[in-house]
Amino acid sequence: MTPTPSLPPLFTALAAEGPVVDTAIGAARAGCDGGTVVYGPTGGDLSAAIVFAPEEPLAGCALALPVCGVGLQNALGALAPPEVAVELGWDGTIFVNGGRCGALKLIGPATDADLVPDWLIVTLDLAFLPEGDDAGAAPDRTALYAEGCGEVERLPLLEAWVRHTLVWLNRWQDGELRALHREWEGLVRDMGDGALGVDERFSKLVKTDAGTSAVPLTSLVRTP
């Protein structure tokens, strides 16, 4: 039996029946409370999701992606050896010591930036074990156990992710957007070709022949 994670108040643990993303979408569609944390078995890689109940249009609540990213970096940074570098991509990619180790993704019922979605999900997939026997088959990919994180356990990391994410959710909701920007900008690794940075809503600013264009976080939202 998969142990139940210990979560902060207002968060509720829900064990996945099948793929985590399917359970999370089903729970969200059924009207589960915001703060529902869906988690999978703790024997392999870490797969989890947080269901949010937005109160603002998608253009604003999509900031849940960098919030959850900073929370994950803070959590893993506290549990992993100090020499392990944990960085983030604008699109939710998680880098450990420069290698791709997992990803955070946004899922919602629609992609209209001006509408308040009924729900929003941030999923987390993080590799603990290398894929296959040939570690050199995908040199740009890695796993926690291949990067000296053998002491990191899945359940404590899940619990820490939720706790640290809650800290940044509270700061965001208290108007500390600049603090979130500073923290995230110190962690970002890969913005992509031509990227100049981000604007106040974390839209990626890209240099083009015509000037500068903004790619919003809402472009990352995937629908079921």
TrEMBL record:
<dbReference type="InterPro" id="IPR004143">
    <property type="entry name" value="BPL_LPL_catalytic"/>
</dbReference>
<dbReference type="Pfam" id="PF16917">
    <property type="entry name" value="BPL_LplA_LipB_2"/>
</dbReference>
<dbReference type="InterPro" id="IPR045864">
    <property type="entry name" value="aa-tRNA-synth_II/BPL/LPL"/>
</dbReference>
<feature type="domain" description="BPL/LPL catalytic">
    <location>
        <begin position="7"/>
        <end position="185"/>
    </location>
</feature>
<dbReference type="GO" id="GO:0016874">
    <property type="term" value="F:ligase activity"/>
</dbReference>
<keyword id="KW-0436">Ligase</keyword>
<protein>
    <submittedName>
        <fullName>Biotin-(Acetyl-CoA carboxylase) ligase</fullName>
    </submittedName>
</protein>
